[in-house]
Amino acid sequence: MAAATVNLPAICLNVGPMLNGNLQSEKIGTGTIMWKARDLYGAGKLDADGYLDMVCAGSPSPGHCNTMGTASTMNALAEALGMALPGSATIPAVYRDRSQAAYRTGLQIVEMVEADRRPSDIMTREAFENAIAANTAIGGSTNAPIHLNAVAKHMGVPLHLDDWDRIGYELPLLVNVQPAGEMLCEEYYRAGGLPAVLAELVGAGRLPHPGALTCNGRTIGDNVAAHGPSWDRATIKAFDAPMKKNAGFLHLTGNLFDSAIMKTSVISAGFRKEFLEDPNDPNAFESKVAVFDGPEDYEKRIDIADIDKRTILVMRYVGPKGYPGAAEVVNMHAPPRLLKQGIQDLPCIGDGRQSGTSGSPSILNATPEAADGGNLALLQDGDRLRVDLNKRRVDMLISDDELKARRGAHEAKGGYHGPPSQTPWQDIFRRESVV
User: In what residue span(s) does the Dihydroxy-acid/6-phosphogluconate dehydratase N-terminal domain sit (predicted)?
Assistant: First the structure.
């Protein structure tokens, strides 16, 4: 965002992912393993020491997450935008190749200054559309839309959540990396990294703009041609034999919120069977909700709330106005009594963010958030929602009169009464209109 704002020659170089984690021959992915360990601990299959051993095994070296979390995603999207050298996003932090990439990046920025090649030459509308396509193919984080849209706004490029659905949803998932897959970033790098993924999109004619300029003065199509497709089809799939078809984000609306996103690449077979395979109502379901006012309320009541295997878990008051830093706190799982029955995947909805390492098929970043007067603030335990992915809608199944009465009661109490702002940024969001 800073590079976009000042529009001076700039280039991206990241630290790179950690080495693969391993525990008793099992691949352990940073972040992603935490959610698995939490479920095992909640189900009584892991004690506290075992939990720590499992989580720590996922972080064997310096570097960012070795899964397709937010760090790996945003570094890949910087490369897809053309702001990082081709192939640099996925080099593990401690590999010799990383220092060589740093050296080449230093040489490249000097050439960019001499050529006066600026972010506005690179981060065009076409580049952002390429990044959206790349995000689907890699199974990128749910944080990608809000981050990339923010960069685009600083660059003066119009980009909306509808674009993520329109451009990205019907593309396939090609990268077999946790949390949507099985591998980790070392395999992904050795298999060819992002250039090999983009080669599949170019070969299928599905990279929107192969002619987009990149930081090295070449087009992204030329850069991809120099690398070629992957040799490792276990890690990077061919376009016509993907991990999953139609794997992009859905942009949802309805009477519960105006806008929210859902990552479809992490929808498990079990979740799909339970919620989305009714032959009379495909890709849709209706369920009651359990509502939590932030992570503290969730931790306090998860064991006693009325939750069954089809309950939708809702967390509100955790957006930019409601919670400091719009933190990644919509990381909910089933209560221990359901975990012990093998039930793990419950639908989740929140007006905040979730870790990019999570494998939960959650509906996130709902706006307007509850703290800003959104209808999430009116939702009550036991209410029923209808989620219809085909229609891109989430609706409260209550009458207009009941909704109006709840709105009146909410406003009569003065609306949202949260704690004082805990960060300067939260105060800014509370004082200024959020566009």
Answer: 1-223
